[in-house]
Design a protein that fits this description.
Helix 1 crosses helix 2. Strands 7-6-5-4-8 form a 5-stranded antiparallel β-sheet. A 3-stranded mixed β-sheet has the order 1-2-3, covered by helices on one side. The N and C termini lie far apart (73 Å). It contains 3 helices and 8 strands; from the N terminus they run H-E-E-H-E-H-E-E-E-E-E. Helix content is 21%, strand content 39%. A hairpin with a 3-residue loop joins strand 5 and strand 6. With 164 residues, it is α+β, with helices and mostly antiparallel strands.
Length: 164
């Protein structure tokens, strides 16, 4: 008879379980969940934000709460808590609201691309102000146009970084 292989058993962390922990921790604060990735190897990435911006202490607090909870369940996981970063696409309504007044680039699900100032955001969608060159007689002039998009129309929205 051949040698028996050792049997390893581990509990996979679910996204919903982590979301419940983080949601409770953020209750009563201005912070919000942007995204949570829970991978099969128990690597957990949590992205949080708040209108005034996330600081390291916020991330450490949430990391410890998750780690302590998982430890009581005898679950071993690699946990990372951070802000999503400026280069990442906007994912939740609160991020759009936080960035009102900034330049953003949107790509719609039909492939249309627009860059302009984010004027408004609510639970339904966003409004952009875009200055476009239009032909007026024999010359071109700037025209300010407003575009509204529902979140369902958007494939991707990113902040346009400017170093002026």
């Amino acid at each position: 008879m051949g040698a028996k292989s050792p049997h390893f058993c581990y509990t996979m962390v679910s996204k919903q379980y982590i979301e419940n922990i983080v949601s409770k921790a953020l209750e009563g604060t201005s912070a919000f969940i942007v995204d949570i990735n829970a991978l099969p190897n128990n690597k957990v990435d949590v992205f949080i934000d708040k209108p005034e911006g996330i600081v390291v202490a916020d991330c450490v607090k949430i990391n410890r709460l998750i780690a302590n909870d998982l430890e009581t369940q005898n679950i071993d996981a690699e946990i990372t808590v951070s802000s999503p970063g400026l280069e990442e696409p906007l994912k939740v309504t609160q991020q759009y609201v936080k960035n009102i007044g900034r330049q953003v680039r949107v790509i719609t699900k039909t492939g249309e691309e627009k860059t302009g100032k984010l004027l408004a955001a609510n639970t339904d969608g966003i409004e952009l102000e875009i200055i476009e060159r239009v032909k007026s007689g024999n010359k071109k002039e700037n025209a300010t146009n407003h575009y509204q998009f529902t979140y369902g129309q958007l494939a991707k929205t990113q902040i346009v970084l400017s170093f002026k």
